[in-house]
Write a structure and sequence with these properties.
The protein has 342 residues and is mainly α. It has helices at 28-41, 53-59, 64-80, 98-107, 112-117, 119-128, 134-137, 139-148, 162-179, 219-227, 248-256, 260-272, 277-303, 306-335; strands spanning 15-20, 46-51, 89-92, 154-156, 187-189. The protein binds tryptophan.
Length: 342
């Protein structure tokens, strides 16, 4: 008997397509960057969320086992923050092989020069000092196939992904120009905090993670991470005036502490040298932990029911595939690609 039932069939809503490359568990930066938008918009839009396992192979094709593990973690992370599988469709990228057909058509439309000029690709190669595979250089083209395969209207993403969405829009326009109106031109949507600073004070929290607070961290781990968190290095005593800007502890307070008066009070006292790091960190721990408690609970619900989690993923992937099959069929017709065998 099917325990899981999707609520909305045949809805005439606009579509969201978004997702994550499963290269590690998701963190609080993902939450403010994109997850929060997905959760908020899932009732307004027909929402599809992909677990981008094919993308993950572009980082290292030998890591199948690790990728499968991470796919499951990222899946749980999405459910944990409030993606409702009866409302949104969360699916496995490789479960829709038609996406890869679309990818191969799009590959012919993008010049080599354009592919290597994409700032998202370029920055990541430099930052991680990669010797990139072809799959890595072309991941924005695969991403375009993910998005256009659903004719998505809106793509909630982190700020670092904006150039990828720009390239998707270009592909859609070029295709429409060559073969007639086929694709919707999608828009990107960035969350309320575009880029969350790492616990080590580095510009960005990273998915592979030493400087990240994970959505799945337990209380003890959270406490340790906040305790060890980088603050203002020029401040030696609690009576020294401290810098609030670019201080991770205050960035997190601003993003996650709902008590705005408390945050303003701490900021003012910090600037004047009237509060120690200890108090600021303890208050952050309380706020962060309150935020994470219901997320941990929901995660545990699905962790304890792996057969339900699996059934949802199978059914949702089937439903998602139907949408893509229809659109790819239209693409083949527009291109008249099967003319000689029809
Ligand atoms: N490249 C995205 C990331 O690393 C993940 C992704 C793959 C994606 N396909 C997508 C995001 C389609 C939005 C839409 O975060």
């Amino acid at each position: 008997m099917l325990k899981f039932q999707y609520k909305y069939m045949n809805q005439n809503k606009k579509r969201i397509l978004t997702g994550d490359t499963p290269s590690g568990r998701l963190h609080i930066g993902h939450y403010v960057g994109t997850l929060e938008n997905r959760v908020k918009l899932q009732h307004e839009y027909d929402t599809f969320i992909l677990l981008a396992n094919v993308h993950a192979f572009a980082n290292d094709y030998r890591k199948s086992e690790e990728i499968n593990k991470n796919v499951y973690e990222v899946y749980l992370d999405n459910l944990a923050v409030g993606i409702d599988p009866e409302v949104s469709t969360i699916y496995l990228e490789s479960g829709i092989p038609e996406t890869l057909e679309l990818y191969s058509y799009f590959m012919t439309m993008v010049t080599h020069a354009r592919a290597i000029r994409n700032p998202s690709v370029k920055d990541e190669i430099n930052y991680k000092k990669l010797d990139p595979s072809m799959g890595f250089i072309c991941y924005p083209i695969l991403q375009a196939a993910d998005i256009l395969g659903f004719n998505a209207d809106l793509v909630p993403v982190g700020e670092d992904q904006l150039p990828v969405i720009e390239q998707t829009r270009e592909i859609a326009r070029d295709f429409n120009k060559a073969y007639g109106e086929t694709f919707v031109i999608p828009s990107a949507k960035v969350g309320r905090v575009a880029r969350l600073i790492g616990t080590d004070g580095k510009l960005k929290m990273s998915k592979s993670g030493e400087n990240a607070i994970l959505l799945s961290d337990d209380e003890e781990t959270l406490k340790k991470k906040i305790h060890a968190c980088y603050t203002d290095p020029s401040r030696i005593h609690a009576t020294d005036p401290g810098k609030v800007e670019e201080n991770p502890i205050f960035e997190y307070h601003k993003a996650f502490n709902p008590n705005k008066d408390e945050v303003t009070d701490l900021e003012n006292r910090y600037r004047l040298g009237k509060v120690g790091d200890k108090e600021v960190k303890e208050k952050l721990f309380v706020a962060m932990n309150n935020f994470l408690v219901p997320i941990r609970e929901k995660r545990k619900f699905y962790e304890d029911r792996p057969e339900i989690a699996k059934e949802i993923l199978i059914e949702s992937t089937k439903r998602a595939r139907k949408v893509v099959i229809e659109i790819v069929e239209k693409v083949r017709e527009q291109m008249n690609i099967n003319k000689l065998i029809k």
